[in-house]
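Example is below:
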Amino acid sequence: MGDTPSTADTRSGDRYARELERHLDWLDTFTSTALGVLAAASGIYTYLGVRTLLDDPGVWTTFAALSYSIAVSVGIFVFWSYMLRLLPAVRTAAARGGLLLTMALGCVAIIAMSSWLNAAALAGGAAVETHMATTVQQYQAALERAHANAVAGQSLSRDVARVRQSFDDLSEQEAGGTLSGFSGRGAVFRVLTQKGAELAALEDQMTVVAQPIEDAFAQGNTILARMRSLSVEPGGIEDRTVRFSEDAVELSGLITQLRQLNPAPLVARAAQDLADAVVLPELDGSSADIRAGQNSTINSVLSLVEQRAATLTAAATEVLALPQPSEAIYTPLSAADAVIVYAGNFIPAWAGAISIDLLPAVLVFIIMVVQAAIRGGRGETMTDDRMTVGELRSALAAADLLRQTEPGPHDPAAAPLRPGP
């Protein structure tokens, strides 16, 4: 008689399970080796990453970095060996969930102790160069803003010159008797020339700082060009960062100098003094009518001074209200820190660094699926079909020995038979 459908299905499932087991047996021959290679590769990159964090190039530093990398390699190998063997073998949901949680925690630990150092080894130099390039952009924006503000403050010299010219013209008119009605260089003339002289002195101060502003800006651009070349120059990153830091300090000083050379605050203070600090001369008219005319004209001149001062103050306030240059400060970063700060720019490096550590997780899930398929094909029955020839011979010999030692059916107390010679 043929096999029943259930028996045929059982045999088919058992053959399917034996086929998968043969594949697993073959894969087991090199799985440990492959896992060891991955762990060793991760340890090498971890060693390179650790060296970027340690400044001392001595023997003990090398020994410490090597010890850490070996510990990481051993930890990764042992951890994934446990997962490859235990997680696919468990059957209950509670055990599987507990091991999956353990694997997740282990993956986090591996990333924390190894993957970020691997990323530092893969892209640490490029990350430091990115930090330098970003810093150059910040310094360039600060330099241009400081120069623009200084030039805007320097442009106030035209307003000062216009107000000073108005006082010069009024003083000439007063000398001809046009303002007070009495010609000569009396009290009104002295008030006008006093304010004109103050504005002329202010104008001279603004003229003096014009060339230093342009010189500082040109020098700053030269330093920026040197910093840009350092950010892309081939060679050791340590030496370049030292020179970059020196240029950054010098450029910060130039930006501060440009802020100090901005004449807008000087104009604002001078405009305030123009209205407040007025030395009224003694009226020197020969008659009461002349002195009354001088007094009236001086009051008008003082009103004009207040108006001109308000105009200069408003112009200076507009310049002072311009956005100030940002505080560009270069903070040196190690390769490991730079990789973290600019992680978004180095996603492929991070993906490679993490993948080399967490790739065995894919193998764990593959074996879990295959083991589940084996159990599903074989069911709950046990089989000895996977016995080797040697195991089969041993089993047959043991069965023969048991049959020889069994008592006879008519002699329950008979002694066990001894094997023949």
